[in-house]
Amino acid sequence: MQEFAKINQEICVVVPTYNNARFLQETIENILQYNENVIVVDDGSTDETNKIIENFLGKIIWISNKKNKGKGYALHKGFDIAEKLGYKYVITMDSDGQHDVADLPLFYKKNAQMPDCMIIGSRILRQKNMPVGNTFANKFSNFWFAVQTGKRLADTQTGFRLYPLKKMHGMRPLLNRYEAELELLVRSAWRNIKIMPIKINVKYPTERITHFRPFADFLRISILNTFLCIAAVIYGYPKRLFLWIKR
User: Fold this and answer.
1) Rounded to an integer, what distance in angstroms lies between the CA atom of residue 162 and that of residue 99?
2) What pLDDT, on a 0 to 100 scale, did the predictor assign at position 13?
3) What predicted TM-score, i.e. pTM, was given to this entire model?
């Protein structure tokens, strides 16, 4: 913990959560071992989430939405609070038990080496208990990300990321649900923010609750990719070219 004390003054961890009471307490407890700056955004949970968060009052910042508005909206609120509090970086983590909190130092180390980069966790996508649809959805997303940005990543759907707030200049997700993370990735690439993947562990507990709706969310992601492909031609590629010439 002392090794990363200085870094922790600049970085906070934002945890969006919705009806994941089963893993939330353990997730927060583990994060606090590595970083004391934690913002939990409860996106309208109807389970025991409120009671669990109350156990950490005074130790974390708690934001609560009365109604479920989606992960993108929760990230937006978390980023706003983090920036107001003066943090330069935000690490986002899911609260469903899949992310290994012990990987946090990997983000700190890479951030110290490359402070202007967005750092994203790259998962091993074929393992026990991993939903079959996840592998296909990720390959689908990776392909379109390459088309839209000219860059290749092995895992464009991971929620374990470090966002460089200062480098993003107030960028926030325009969309409110799962597809917001892909949107932020593409827009960051268009701004020539360097995106660095790092290998992370991932777990898929049998008790894990996922709120991904295969048909509805996949349809929204497909519509987003159509829009982003058009925007890439009109805005994305010209923007990157302009920034490259300017540099």
Assistant:
1) 14
2) 98
3) 0.87
